[in-house]
Amino acid sequence: MKLFLRLLFRNRLAGFGAVVLGAIVVLAVLTPVLPLHAPNETNTANRFLRPFAEGHLLGTDHLGRDLLSRLMWGTRLSLAVGFAAALVAGLAGAAIGVIAGYFGGRTDNVTMRGVDMLMAFPYILLALAIVAVLGPGLLNALIAVAVVNIPFFARNIRGITVGIAHREFIDAARLAGMGHTRILLTEVVPNVVPVVVIAMSTTIGWMILETAGLSFLGLGSQPPQADLGSMLGEARSALITAPHTSIVPGVMILLIVMSVNLLGDGIRDALDPRLRSGALARPMAATRVERKTVPAPEGEGLLRIDGLETQFHIGARVYKAVNKVSLDLKPGECLGLIGESGSGKSVTALSVMGLVASPPGVITGGAVRLNGQDLIGAPYEVLRALRGRKVAYIFQDPLSTLHPLYRIGDQLIEAIRVHEPVSRAQAHERAIKLLEDVRIPNARARARAFPHELSGGMRQRVGIAMAMANDPDIIIADEPTTALDVTVQAQILALLDDLRRSRGLAILFITHDFGVVGQLCDRVAVMYGGRIVETGPTAEVLEAPAHPYTRRLIACVPELGGGRRVLAAIPGLPPAVDDLPQGCAFAPRCDKAQDACRKGEIALTGAARQVRCLYPEVAP
Amino acid sequence: MGGYILKRLLSAVPVLLGITVIVFLIMAMIPGDPATAILGSYATPENVERLNRHLGLDEPLWRQYFIWLGNLLQGDFGRSFALNRPVLDEILDRFSATLILAGTAFVLCSLLGILAGVVSAARQYGLADKAITFVVILGISVPSFFLGMMMILLFAVQLRWLPVSGMYSIWGGGDLPDLIRHLTMPAFALSVVATGVIARLSRGAMLEVLRQDFIRTARAKGVHERRVIWGHALRAAMVSIIPVLGIQAGFVLSGAVYIEMVFQWPGVGRMLVDAILKRDILLVQGGVVFVAACYVGFNIVVDVAQSWLDPRIRT
Amino acid sequence: MTLALKTTDLARTFDIGKRLFGPPRAQVHAVHPVSLDVQQGETLGIVGESGCGKSTLARMLVGLLPPTSGSIEIEGRALDRADPAAFGRLIQYVFQDPVSSLNPRKTIRQIMEAPLRQLHGLKGRALDDRIAELFDAVNLRPEFLSRYPHEFSGGQAQRIGIARALAASPRILILDEPVSALDVSVQAQVLNLLADLKSRLGLTYLFISHDLAVVEAVSDRIAVLYFGSVVETGPAESLFAAPRHPYTKLLAESAPVVGRPLGGAQSGELPDPLNPPPGCAFAGRCPRASDLCRSEVPHLRAVEGDQFAACHHPITD
């Protein structure tokens, strides 16, 4: 709760809304005891007094009634009606939505068709029809507004509930022997409540507007009682002669609705966990760079990464995802970058072309040199021209990485045409050639397919074809087979290996699988806690790992053909990169760790084989 | 695609029937006796009874419904007693005026809203984003009728740029520039709230899409950022924007009722409010069914647009 | 040895394109009739690629999904109605995604209490003691009980999931990809914990995974699923070492193994479930396929010793 309030007031506009709304509500509650004129006390002699007239701070209306008093009483009424309508609509709609969404099937079908039927009316038609039946009056207007809004809530909440009802914890509750009622009340509803609160807080303003609207039309509150809407309605005929009688209630509606909306947005932001973590930020076209010094190149190479540091700045926390990583890739070479999740391997790969999502990502140091040209901090246009042309990427999940609404042929054509001024027809022919190169059968027809019409393996072939579109020098493959089945994985790996050998491609291959590295890569680099802990030729590293982490990680992974056995586990958890220990990041889990391992910086030593360890398993 | 359109058209039939049932039942629940309302409270019981029989009101409810529905299908919406002319003629006259107003406002709010939303998302937390967000909050908080009144005060009374109210039909002698002069203020006032809603939603949808993996793919290919935003991202965002355009069309149509009151626009909304206050039931019934049917038709167009955009829902 | 679990022709069909009234537009056979026997104290591994029906099978076994036909017997008792509460005391389920299987708005204590209260009617002291005992069994510290699921790493959350499943005191655990969401260094911890629990509590496991090496390492016997059918069963030691069904062979050869050259790019994909082939589902990808394979569905039969294969032309030495 405290967290909620802090988050709410972190948003200054929401705080402003809360203060204004609070003041209005307090005044409205206190209205009966404030020293005001009676709201319905007419005095035709004092008609249309201007504001600041004696005894009437805001002037008087067409019957000489005190505007301030009427405004306060009207505000009371409007607020009460708006909140009541939101409450009724929210609760009724949520109940319908939760039941339809949880039970699904026919219940859902019938209920939702009814809801759709109501939504087929522009809302005011339904409201007008309801008022026509019930007769004009404030209570009837409230009912009309509430009823009209129930379908919106029902739909919204149903969608959320369907999502929750298919979550695994609902299955777990059923396996724990809970009945439907208990599951609904204790498992589903607590997860829906925040959504209902958000929906209500963002629609109260709208409800107030709608009831005011009905009153404005003369269908809501009836004279002499007046809410803000009917005050405006009555004042309309004197709009030109006595504008203040219109402006006063109008501005009040505006103030109330605006403060409610600001507050509602604040509540939504504070309750939505994604907004809390800042995850809804939009990644910019290229990763932000805040680099103080540029390290000197440490050697030659097609692609050289020198002392790369990439961090995530989330709130006050700094996650050192990539910590002084140096790598080099020679033409035609395949380098494997291996590590567990959170080790920084993917961030390293994405940093090369500035594709780390930013915010929150920041490159804070190091250099990435492509044929000697530093890419970190390069102007956007330079980076863009190299992306896909010199360095191309293949990503993990081919369903989410291809645009769902473009035909795959068009996506390939685009990849060609952003870098080469060829005609569409020429590009189309090349696209089909590319699809054939990655062994997609019936390429000409498949070019017209959308990604969802292909299987996972076919989609990843398209991903590879797209990477090959401009004959790049380097392909960075970020776990390209992790989402695929093992038989399909074998096909894709074989394809990559063929392409690499026939075209002299250099590949930076990111994976967590030693088996894959062993089959595909010439050299391997092992990452742990954002740093390289060991590199060397693949066969040597796998046969005689030098770093204790590498050795024990390899031992963790069962290998096919070994039969039934007890596995060697590594106790503990990988380190959190926002709170790295002093010295070696693996020391807390390492059975060889000495005091010296827990302090200072431990250097990567060696030449062709390098290891970051004071007590390596084998001399590098 | 053709199959989808046909399927969608067929699925509208039960909805339309449902609408007529709902409207009919609501109207049947109205307390009081239409004949008394027509003839006034001094009518003799014999006259009332005769009129009831004439109107078919002595039949059972379900028969009344089918008679009414049959007449509707033949284009006979009945006769408005207050205006003493066929309901359909009155509706068609009035609806064209509403269509001009609401149509203009809808086009305005769709274009402005999406534009503002995309710019806002592309410049998240920048100056443009903050300014747009502020204007949007103001826009969705102001009652359209109040805004209309204030515009009259400013542009018509103070500055005398635009006419206060009324509308000349271009078909009835007025010319296009004159129509535009009369249309400017009401169409703008009507579009403001929907513009705000669409802008907010578009911003959210764009931010959601811009975080997706396929945007990163487009950037990795070397696609220009302008094309990433206005091509890849907007296209994907439209999948969630289009349904909201459909809902907002209903809100624009609804808001037209207020705007027509403020600007004395001779549209269907004002007609309905007058009819309710005068208890002119056949006119209310006919008007509601007619407008709702048009809205259903519009939503079919929206769905077809959606399926054209998103191949995943065509099957 | 007694049978812990026996399924007889267990099958599940899904309707595609449901209508409000009338028959559905099409049907997909997610699981073809499957008959399995699992001995008391045994670990049966089930492997298969995505879409082979292994999760559907698992959900039927715990009563989350009613089978279209066939029956389930647990320790000789038939469980026909899909009622998770009736199944719960005998058979429990450990989910693939440990975090999403815990309700984000409940504390771990509340999550642990549910099965104990609902299935065993425990309360008060007895309840607290049992929770402490379970937490001890999965090596978790008792202070975790007052925390919420999002505060845990994947490995810890999976231990909680295992503790919750054990709370029901089941005889059988269905482990549905229990480690595939975890990092390799944590995987081994959880697998060893599971092995330890099994021997201490005398449990029977059904271990479902797509990872051949993991399944081989933990199972006594393995069943290979392809396109909704069991294509081969056999002892863990010999199944992948000497596969009898060509699909098992393809699987074993596709698994990346250090030092083995990359296999040939054998193409081929799963058949369309809406339009399945008439004979063996694997015939389209199979180098040994004959006309017989394309017309007649092969049934599971003994090929050598304990090894059964559903193949007209099994691989023999």
TrEMBL record, chain A:
UniProt subcellular location: Cell inner membrane; Cell membrane
Pfam families on file: ABC_tran, BPD_transp_1, oligo_HPY, OppC_N
SMART domains: AAA (SM00382)
Keywords from the UniProt entry: ATP-binding, Cell membrane, Membrane, Nucleotide-binding, Transmembrane, Transmembrane helix, Transport
Annotated ranges, domain ABC transporter: 303-554
Bilayer topology term: Peripheral membrane protein; Multi-pass membrane protein
Superkingdom of source: Bacteria
Residue intervals of the ABC transmembrane type-1 domain: 75-264
Family stated for the protein in its record: Belongs to the binding-protein-dependent transport system permease family. Belongs to the ABC transporter superfamily.
Name of the molecule in the record: Dipeptide/oligopeptide/nickel ABC transporter permease/ATP-binding protein
Automatic annotation (TrEMBL), chain B:
Domain of life: Bacteria
Coiled coil: none
CDD domains, A to Z: TM_PBP2
Membrane topology: Multi-pass membrane protein
Location (main, coarse): membrane
Stored Pfam families: BPD_transp_1, BPD_transp_1_N
Lineage: Bacteria, Pseudomonadati, Pseudomonadota, Alphaproteobacteria, Rhodobacterales
Ranges for domain ABC transmembrane type-1: 95-301
Family: Belongs to the binding-protein-dependent transport system permease family.
Entry-linked PANTHER family: DIPEPTIDE TRANSPORT SYSTEM PERMEASE PROTEIN DPPB-RELATED
Keywords: Cell membrane, Membrane, Transmembrane, Transmembrane helix, Transport
Protein name, as recorded: ABC transporter permease
Protein species of origin: Roseinatronobacter alkalisoli
UniProt-annotated location(s): Cell membrane
From TrEMBL, chain C:
Gene3D superfamilies in the record: P-loop containing nucleotide triphosphate hydrolases
CDD domains listed in its UniProt record: ABC_NikE_OppD_transporters
Keywords: ATP-binding, Nucleotide-binding, Transport
Major subcellular location class: membrane
Signal peptide start-end: none
A GO molecular-function annotation: ATP binding
Xref: InterPro entries: AAA+_ATPase, ABC_transp_ATP-bind, ABC_transporter-like_ATP-bd, ABC_transporter-like_CS, Oligopep_ABC_C, P-loop_NTPase
Residue intervals of the ABC transporter domain: 5-252
Membrane topology recorded in Swiss-Prot or TrEMBL: Peripheral membrane protein
Subcellular location: Cell inner membrane
Keyword match Acetylation: no
Coiled coil spans: none
Domain of life: Bacteria
Family: Belongs to the ABC transporter superfamily.
UniProt protein name: ATP-binding cassette domain-containing protein
